[in-house]
Amino acid sequence: MESILEGARERPGGDERIDVDPRSLPAALERAEADGRVPVIAEVKPTSPTAEGTREADPVDLAEAMVDGGAAAISVLTEPSHFGGTPDALRRVREAVDVPVLRKDFLLREAHLDVVEADLVLVIARFVDDLEGLVSAARERGFQPLVEVHDRGELEAALEAGAEIIGVNNRDLARLEVDLATFESVAPHVPEDVTLIAESGISSPADVRRMRAAGADALLVGSAIMDHGADDEVDVAANTRRLTTVERRPETETETQTTHDESENA
């Protein structure tokens, strides 16, 4: 993780301030719910430090397949060294789809916002020195900031910074370990008027039901849709549809235990 952050510190920002007319994420999530779909933010992620391989398919083709599969929004990695992303890939994806597009990167200072237009930008609370300042700077440009947290302390910092969209990352970025109980421990403390997103580790319909039962308004899913261990012929639309068409139902005590077991073994 330190090498990723070091690379982010060294990367320059944009030359001119960006002004964005964003597509609303909350509205997109509401449309998905109204259509009977689970609101999923599907992620175009060529590779990652935890992936088993690299997907060489065109990012636009992948994003369009995800939307065909019911994705309410698209996330695009723009970090180049460890995730294989580029700002140009995001630009092309946003031109091709009509849903909100999230720029996922390690944004550390205001100038990093001025690289490429997106509807949302990821702001990771753990890594930003002036969280309130960066959230405000993003809003001033028209971005919807998605503030990512991992525990109660980071949640409080995000709320104090005025975050209205919060993602709880089930992956501990220090150890890269995933535990869906992370979301379950943080979610009860998130105000109802905040849009709440569960991130990482969601790979099965059981995981979807578990996160939705814990209060997730949407799910951010990357690897389970991209399927980095497969070849480029994998059906990304089908992978997306598998997670957007899960029916929410009350869990019995037995089902809850099964769900936990399935998640741990995924």
TrEMBL record:
Pathway: Amino-acid biosynthesis; L-tryptophan biosynthesis; L-tryptophan from chorismate: step 4/5. One of its GO terms (molecular function) is indole-3-glycerol-phosphate synthase activity. Residues 7-22, 244-266 have a biased composition (Basic and acidic residues). It catalyses: 1-(2-carboxyphenylamino)-1-deoxy-D-ribulose 5-phosphate + H(+) = (1S,2R)-1-C-(indol-3-yl)glycerol 3-phosphate + CO2 + H2O. Residues 1-22, 243-266 are annotated as: Disordered. Residues 17-228 form the Indole-3-glycerol phosphate synthase domain. GO terms for biological process: L-tryptophan biosynthetic process. Its EC number is 4.1.1.48. Keywords: Amino-acid biosynthesis, Aromatic amino acid biosynthesis, Decarboxylase, Lyase, Tryptophan biosynthesis. InterPro entries: Aldolase_TIM, Indglycph_syn_Halo_TrpC, Indole-3-glycerol_P_synth, Indole-3-glycerol_P_synth_dom, Indole-3-GlycerolPSynthase_CS, RibuloseP-bd_barrel. It is an enzyme of class 4 (lyase). Pfam families: IGPS. HAMAP family: IGPS_A. Belongs to the TrpC family. This is Indole-3-glycerol phosphate synthase. It comes from Natronobacterium lacisalsi AJ5. The lineage of its organism: Archaea, Methanobacteriati, Methanobacteriota, Stenosarchaea group, Halobacteria.
